Amino acid sequence: MKTKILLSLCLGFGLSKAQTINYKGCYNLFNNQDFVLTKTGTDTYGKGIYITTPVTGDQPCGGLGICEFKIQWNNTNTRWEFLADQGDGDFVDPYVVFYNATGSSSAVNPPSNTTGEWLENTAITQGECGGSMSGANSTMTGDVHTSTLALSDFNKNKFKIYPNPVKDVLNIIADEQLNSISIYDNAGRLVVSEKSKLNINVSKLSKGLYIIKIETKDSKNHEIKFIKE
Q1: DSSP letter string over 191-228?
Q2: Residue pair 78/30 in contact by the 8 Å Cβ criterion
Q3: Does residue 101 share a domain with residue 42?
Q4: What is the per-residue burial (b if ≥16 Cβ within 10 Å, else e) of 73-101?
Q5: In 52-165, alpha helices (H)
Q6: Is the pTM of this model over 0.85?
Q7: What is the bridge-based pairing of β-strands 208-216 and 119-120?
Q8: Which of 142, 171, 198 delimits the end of a domain?
Q9: Pair 38, 138 in one domain
Q10: Residue 216 lies in a domain
Q11: Are residues 37 and 128 in the same domain?
């Protein structure tokens, strides 16, 4: 297995100024060891890209035999992804180990392991990670966000929903053109997905707290809570 040491991150900038994420988890595949992912830049949506920087240059892993990781935003699937390289250090066709579509999608850094839900991609891991990433089976600290909602980003002058609480139909008032509407339950599961529809039938949803995510045509996301009666 080949590992990359990203020495360029240390030269000229210094580790003290680096934005890093410390990760430990999925012990059956990656052993009981710590990994450091350093921010290497941002994508076209302004979201951070984080890649492992092994300090020894040789961090062996069990299971998949992978010790190079990347966390980045997948705008097509509207989610953060925890990726494992296939061993060449180039992240071409990497493995998706975990993914999170319920952390704040408007945040520029990924959610923590206890924010939203980092789902295990069992098609790749065969369930060896022990289920969704959580505080019980992993640690993920540093340059991460810890809120599933970014209410400060929700422009109430441009977007309104009513009634709230709602029983049958949730209405949306928007001053911008919409691309899609998604509704997640309180456990982070996607329960409704619509295109640019301003009237959403929620009558079949169970009573409880939900999050509606509104994506505009310019790919910006806005989230707000509502209660289903």
Answers
A1: EEEESS-SEEE-TTSPSEEEEEEEEETTS-EEEEEEEE
A2: no
A3: yes
A4: beeeebbbbbbbbbeebebeebbbbbbbb
A5: 122-125
A6: no
A7: unpaired
A8: 142
A9: yes
A10: yes
A11: yes
